[in-house]
C-alpha cells in the first residue's frame, strides 16, 4: 500500500511540475515546459515544415490536436497527404519572426488539403502553394477535406479560432449549406475567422487557454452565429 501511495504521489508531482503551460496572451506571452511536435510526429501522418526556424513547440493540448487531426483524416481518407505543420512557438514561447501571435504555445499554421494529395517538401523554406489567387480558390484546394478537418478540430478540441482567407470561409459556408450541415456545425463556421493577409497558403489554428494554464489570458470569444 505504501509503495502504491508513493508511486501515485510521484506521478502527481511529476505531472504538476512538468505539464506544459501557456502563459499570458497569444501575442504577449510565453510557454513553460513546452512539448516538441517531434513527440507526435509520424512521417506518414504528420510532418513539420521550416524546422530550421526552431518553432517546433507548443502545449500538450496543441500537440494532441495536431496528432488527432492526422489520425482522423488518414482514417477518413487513406491516401491523403500528411498534416503539414508550419510555424508553432519557440521552446520558451515569446516573440518569433514573422508573427505577432504564436507566443504561448497555442497557435499552429497548417497547410490546406490538396486535391492532388501531394505534400510539399519539408526542406522548402517557404509555403509551396497559394490556394487563393485574386480572391478565388485554385483548382487544387480540396473543399470537402478541409471542411472535415475544421469540423474535427472544433468538435474534438478546445479551439478558439481558425484563421482563414475570406475565399476559404466563403467556400466552407457553401459546402456546409450544400451538405445540409450549416445548422449542425454552426459552431465550426463561427470559429472560422477571416484574416486575409497571410492565410492564402495555410490556416492558423489557435486553442483556448487550457484548464492547466491558470496564467494564460484568454482571447475574447468570436461573435455568435456562423458568420456566413
How would you portray this structure in words?
This protein is α+β, with helices and mostly antiparallel strands and 228 residues long. It has one domain (21-207): Muramoyl-pentapeptide Carboxypeptidase, domain 2. The protein contains five helices and twelve strands. The chain has helices spanning 2-18, 60-76, 143-156, 166-178, 186-191, and strands at 21-25, 28-32, 35-36, 46-48, 57-58, 83-85, 107-111, 132-133, 136-137, 159-164, 192-194, 202-207. The chain has a four-stranded mixed sheet. Helix 2 (60-76) packs across helix 3 (143-156). Residues 1-17 have low confidence and may be disordered.
What's this model, at a glance?
With 228 residues, this protein is of the alpha+beta class.
Topology:
Elements: H1 2-18, E1 21-25, E2 28-32, E3 35-36, E4 46-48, E5 57-58, H2 60-76, E6 83-85, E7 107-111, E8 132-133, E9 136-137, H3 143-156, E10 159-164, H4 166-178, H5 186-191, E11 192-194, E12 202-207
Parallel strand pairs: 4-6, 10-11
Antiparallel strand pairs: 1-2, 3-5, 7-12, 8-9, 10-12
Helix pairs in contact: 2-3, 3-4
What is the first-to-last residue Cα distance? Answer: 59 Å
One letter per element, helices H and strands E, the order comes to: HEEEEEHEEEEHEHHEE
The helix tally amounts to 5
Which regions are unreliable across 5 or more consecutive residues at pLDDT < 50? 1-17
Seen as an oligomer or otherwise, the chain set is single chain
Percent in helix: 25-40%
- Proper CATH architecture: 2-Layer Sandwich
Q: What's the overall average pLDDT, rounded?
A: 92
Across the major sheet, the strand order is 7-12-10-11
Number of domains: 1
The CATH topology turns out to be: Muramoyl-pentapeptide Carboxypeptidase, domain 2
Shape: globular
Total strand segments: 12
Structural class: alpha+beta
Strand-residue proportion? 15-25%
- Rg on CA atoms, Å: 18 Å
Main β-sheet, in a few words? 4 strands, mixed
Q: Output the CATH class name.
A: Alpha Beta
